[in-house]
Fold these 3 entries.
Entry 1:
Amino acid sequence: MPVSKRRSAKPKPRPQELTPEQAMVQAIEWHRAGLFDRAEPIYAVLLQRWPEHVDVLNHYGVLKHQRGDSLAAVTMITRATELAPEAPGAWNNLGNVLLRLQRVDEAERAFRQCLALQPGSAEAWTNLGRTLRRRRAFAEAEAACRHALELAPNFVDAWYALALVLISAGRVPEGIVANAKAMTLLPPHRRRRDSFARALVLAGEIEQAAQVYREWLAEEPDNPVIRHHLAACERGDAPERAADAYVETVFDGFADSFDAKLASLGYRAPQLVADALAAALPAPQRQLDIADLGCGTGLCGPLVQGWARRLVGCDLSAGMLDKARVRGLYDDLYKAELVQFLVERPAAFDLLISADTLCYFGDLAAMLDAAANSLRAGGMLVFTVEALPEAGATAPHRLLPHGRYAHARAYLESALPQGGFALAGLQGVVLRSEGARDVRGWLVVGRRTAQRPPR
Ligand SMILES: C[S@@+](CC[C@H](N)C(=O)[O-])C[C@H]1O[C@@H](n2cnc3c(N)ncnc32)[C@H](O)[C@@H]1O
């Protein structure tokens, strides 16, 4: 019987039969092809055997970063740079991870170190430009991107980076031209389109941003994120609150960098909520059942746990909840829409907190009804929202071009009593900064009244 060709072909060795060098080549091949589940165990075995192997540390670090564990990535790639300080690639990778973690100064140092070793790297010059933009050093950022383009005139990353630098510097028409040039070289992927539109919004070019979203929505009509941002830019009929799919998509994508990003923006909402509790409540003695609505990564947890007999959190984003779980402070975490969560738990809590989450709601009536239902007599609701600028604030609330809702003071003053709450505090606050501007908000304290007025 003739032997079939297939049988006679030499079988491909399994990873455990490869030499370490072959295994490394195989892992990198799978890694590049996006087959992370296959590449990772090989890197892990190699690292166990050779914990000081520079290439393994470097590649495995990049993979960790791509899988969302950026802190592990920093540790591994930093070790690679310590073992081989003359290797420019590891410095560039380290800079990228640090930049994602918003550790801008360290990222800049890493990219400069890479450039000291490899001054002809258009990629590293571009990365330096992106980093300097974050520091709002726009002239230097532009120079870095343009230098990258002198080295490699068709380097698409440099054109996209230059576009953002120019828009952030207020040179919008030039930025649009640079972006158009980039698009001729390579059509933008989602993150680039999103960054471009957001930069336009921050620069106040709302109609330009709307146009980007319109064209994009025509290509992806079911994408909830684009739909939401287009509604925000068109200032037409906004939904009552951000769609669940929008919230999930955005925050699942944001979970890894959320804490670092918000820290870099001077984010204060959890601390403001905690300050309001300290002013309104007796000393913490673990005496209350507390729900953290839209708990995110759990930044409120450590600040309120002193008052908590039981502390639970709910959020729509599984990615954010995973981060909160790691803190180990919540008795339970629920993947749930917060109004629904409250409706299903009548008279379950003494205190409800919500930091920087109700800015994804316009009308608060359903939330307030549900909160009153879920609180016991005398219970308290403490939350922050963004402030609708007083000047020209005829609307009760509005979806603003950046994609979050803002609320008018007068609306809160009437909505809380109608929802069954005595307004115990309404204070103007700064929630964080964005694009060097303060984001102003309201810190609201409501006490559940015995009787609710009929709606
Ligand atoms: C800006 S983050 C704030 C997180 C946390 N409270 C803090 O201060 O760090 C907003 C969070 O609210 C969640 N969220 C928004 N709308 C929600 C809703 N309707 N139900 C549940 N979670 C929601 C998002 O998934 C996100 O995690």
Entry 2:
Amino acid sequence: MPGHRIAKFDIHLVASPVPGNFADSTRKVETIGLLVLRVTTDQGLEGIGITYHEVGGEATRELIRHDIAPRLIGRDPFETDALWHELFHYLRGVGRKGLTFCALSAVDIALWDLKGKILGMPLHRLLGGNRTRVPVYASGGWTSYDDDQLVDEMKGMVARGFRHIKFKVGVDGGRDTRRDAIRVRKVRDAVGPEIHLLVDANNCFDAARAVQLANEIRECRITLFEEPVFADDIPGLARFRRGTDIPLGTGEHEYTKFGVRDLLLAEAADFVQADGARAGGYTEMLKIAALTQAFNVAFAPHAMENIHLPLAAALPNVPFLERLLMFEPVTALVFRDAPVPVDGYMHVNDRPGLGLELNLDFVRAADARGG
Ligand SMILES: [Mg+2]
């Protein structure tokens, strides 16, 4: 088989306004931005890479177009590890987190998609998996909802077949934990004892108040308490973990194996939630996965369930993926036939690579409208 060489990069921005009132404890969400990358080989195969943002999409696109793409033209897409390290050292002076890594992640994902397509092999097989389905939780329940809206959305998730559901705590910016405790109890009463409840504080508490809330809602049998304190407050995360037996999730704001190493050494996570579309693509997620296995904690990648599904199918310590209901409309437009959950599970397919097909008409039109 003559080797494919990387020949072309096409980068599209898709902005999807979020109408209505969607806020968590620390911010209001107004737009979902996706960066859709197409890397084409000299033999015409195309790999798809994805990253996402609320701000900074144009900067990420420019970093790929101006700085990363020229270094990769003519290169072998199978050299994912070598190319990752080359790019890491090329870019390290301007960022080992943030937009730089969003760019690197999208590129790495596209190269892995290409490897699967060149081999005619689904990525979940190439990554070594044999699971055909992975549990997925529905994620929403914004703090901007009143109690009835919150309970209605959670009941709707259960009616759709989800057995794990996640909602926000930290109403009024985290100033009223008594209200949070009431809301958690209302959800538990509404969905019954069998459903797994996950709560997400989006960085809003200090450790003492987070522990106080955790102990107040302990009777509601919480599967995971996410980001109780500021993501960089690793001592605070560790203090939270010592103060409650509710398992701690964190890591959606972490990048690379180095960031996850620090969380694990500090005993500051029970579920590591690094996100492959930001943290460094599949190449880095495999290394993060190895770290979580070495420390015997769960790996539960944040959001982007269609990107994480092949990886999750290959990793025994991924208990579930996350499906943000807010992303469902734009995901359905960007991809043709992207997998949808059935009875609370995402099922892998047998198409090569990621198994995703872009709806290029939509993607191009959205990009032309200005992202
Ligand atoms: Mg979160």
Entry 3:
Amino acid sequence: MLKMNVKKFLRSLNFRIMVFLILIGIIPALMVAGGFLASYDRLSMTQLGNDVRNQCQILATQLSSANYFENMDNQTLEGEMTQLATLYDGRIIIIDEDLKIVEDTYDLESGKTIIAESVIRCFRGETVDYRQGGRFIELTVPITTGGENDQTIIGVILVTASTDTQTANLEALRQSMETWLVAIGICVFALAILLSNWLVKPLRHMNQSVSGLVDGALADDLDIHDCTETEKISDTFNLMLAKLRRIEESRQEFVSNVSHELKTPLASMKVLADSLLVQEGAPVELYQEFMKDIAEEIDRENTIISDLLTLVKMDRKTTEVNVAVTDINEFLEQILKRLRPIAEKEKVEVVFESNRSVSAEIDATKLSLAFTNLVENAIKYNKENGWVRVTLDADHKYFYVKVSDSGIGIPQESLDNIFERFYRCDKSHSREIGGTGLGLAITKNAVVAHGGAIKVQSVVGEGTTFTVRIPLRYIV
Ligand SMILES: Nc1ncnc2c1ncn2[C@@H]1O[C@H](COP(=O)(O)OP(=O)(O)OP(=O)(O)O)[C@@H](O)[C@H]1O
Ligand SMILES: [Mg+2]
């Protein structure tokens, strides 16, 4: 399901990158082409307008110097007008002061009066720009009297010129541009496919490797070197894998330890019961002795199970910590009072030193488990006539409990492991002393649940000191 989703995601990512690349490739090309065609159109029309105006101005000067309006029968000028009109595939109309058309190269309107706005404005001396409409442009040029000081407008040339050539040029240009745009489009499309595949490839590769790992039970590391980013992701992923492997290992170890620990008392009971069964008429004393041993094994099994349950409960993230303000001096005294008989049996002296009276917000049940185990360990792993010293101190934020002993000590290489479940330093010796190796795991859980910390210092043969630091106020 997840694999399918990732594949789908990669496909859609590929598609999105491709569309993005196509858009950034084609939109600018279209804009440039459109802008270019529009400018070309504007420029070619202005150019035509200027050409026609220049030619008409020359004609106007000739008309003026030939006194055209007085002597209209001028073949040369008429020829020129026709030539000009033919050149621009248009029409030339000459209008006199009375707005009467005196000459029309189309010979359609001669003799009529014209009241077009552009003509009237031209007579007023205003410069009128060319007007573009349909397939032609139209413009007016004034005819003035020849004198240098007297520039009276005596007539107007109204000329229309065809824009067919310009339109045809523009059309040809548009067609060639369209061909280019199609070619560019094909190139951009091909490039976009290649590029988007190239960009998504490392992710696809990564997905394949990760899927392979998921199927292959965490056995291998990821090994991706497509680019720096995926290399970094792959490194982080490998760190996570290493952590998962450690968790998996400790889970397996935990399960095998639990089974082993739970089986041991059962095996002892079985041996004891079997040996009674095979002895016919065994004396009552023997029964009693064996039954006592069986009862001890049952107690042991019970302790292991309840320790395991405590740990499982504490392991849950949502573990409730029922805090109440507690007098820590009294709390520790109570614990020591309960443990003193064991200490006396082991010939170990237990002393309590407190520098101040401390009260803090704690979950007494949980911390009681923790400190009981620390003091119990200090007694158990001690020497004859040894001592255990419990000291209490505090500052404005934390209280500190130190449990020191004059015992056998913990080897340096074991210090990192003693908080692990079922870990015991010297298995044979520990077995003889009794214990399952769950005590310190419970202790650490309880301390951490309070937002505290625990550390240990030890010298083999000299003794051990556990220091616990707990905040005075419980912070959720
Ligand atoms: N004060 C100490 N001095 C020497 N060794 C210690 C001391 N405290 C703990 N250890 C070592 O650390 C191991 C783990 O301690 P832990 O309290 O977790 O287990 P345990 O005492 O063996 O069993 P349990 O507490 O579950 O009955 C012990 O088996 C012992 O080898
Ligand atoms: Mg213990």
